[in-house]
Amino acid sequence: MSIPGRANAAVKGLALWAGLGLLVFTVVLAGIGFLISAFFIWVTEYKSHAVAAAITGGALLAAAIIVGLLGSVIIKKTRKPQPSLISEFTGIAGTAGRIAGLLIRRDPRKSLILAVIAGALAEYITSDSKKRD
User: Fold this and answer.
1) What is the pTM of this model?
2) pLDDT over 90 (residue 34)
3) Same domain (yes/no): 56, 13
4) DSSP readout, the chain?
5) How many domains, the chain?
């Protein structure tokens, strides 16, 4: 199968999975809505409508707070520590230095040409746009 054919098949598969996920999510929300309605109707047998609505709202608020707290704890525990920007920059600079050293040892003329091109490109990118007009 060609690359565009594979990409097309992957996009179709992704779209189908997204549609299926959206459908399942919608059905789950409808089910939760019916459970909340059933809870409200059950509470109205013992309390007035206003009190039943308040109890239902309070129960939903408590459930949301519990889910939020548990979710934040789980996310904090699963998050990998990110290295600082300085250490990442140092690693990139070190790698660039090693590559430059290898290139200079192999063929100094090519490295000189690449340095001139890189300098010109850096000057073009960092110069004012008014000069280009």
Assistant:
1) 0.48
2) yes
3) yes
4) --HHHHHHHHHHHHHHHHHHHHHHHHHHHHHHHHHHHHHHHHHHTTS-HHHHHHHHHHHHHHHHHHHHHHHHHHHHHHPPPPPPHHHHHHHHHHHHHHHHHHHHHH-HHHHHHHHHHHHHHHHHHHS-HHHH-
5) 2
